[in-house]
Design goal:
268 residues, three-stranded mixed sheet, two-stranded antiparallel sheet, 12 helices, 5 strands, globular, M48 family metallopeptidase, zinc
Amino acid sequence: MKKLISLAIVTLFIVSCSTVPITGRKRVNIMNDAEILPASFAQYEGFLKENKLSTNAKMTNEVQKVGLNISKAVDKFMRANGMVAEANAYRWEFNLIEDKTVNAWCMPGGKVVFYTGILPICDNTDGIAAVMGHEVAHAFAKHGQERMTSAYGQQLGGVAVALGTNNKDPKAKQLWNTIYGIGSQVGMLAYSRTHETEADKLGMVFMIMAGYQPQEAINVWIRMSQRANSGSAPPEFLSTHPSNETRIKNLKAYLPTAIELANKYNAQ
């Protein structure tokens, strides 16, 4: 019986293998968007009811305008590359929350939150685009769904199933918070190093497609490294995300490729 169960699990994971567009990385995702997206939208709605929207109309409008431009770039790519069903499933929304936490996140289906605390790190419109591109890239590449798939492998499937049944379920809410960095001081850094590096690259491509200056993706991480107490971060090999220095180096190296890809996709 154990062998049959193991074989079934292995088969399921093999069948569920796919490739991340643009980067070509192989991933395993057994989460069905038909279940995940409604739960995502419900969790997002619940979060907005429990948290204060920023009253700064100028910054709110800027975050929303940048989000709209980035989402149009992503939508254009998806429709030009055989991802029409996925593009149709997105329900883009961008909100600025009044909170000093240095954080931003994007849930499945294009539900984005920026915290006012991250705006000094963004510093300017192109910086907002860099963070926006990075967060949208997590949703585009289905990084959260990969983490949910991993949760199944760790015998947390029962909790994952609850995601699609009740957005007020405390276990489900906690899992969403953990996977997507909601309310976390390091929400935008919550994924694995592989996911973070991939989101950095995809985000740079998307921000260029949307007409923003990609150098700011590098500058964002320079400013992040200059934050107070940034020197207290754990060594990279003990961390779930690349060091600021590694990200800066990787983005500088990837910049020519990102420009080439963005030009290619904009011409489609």
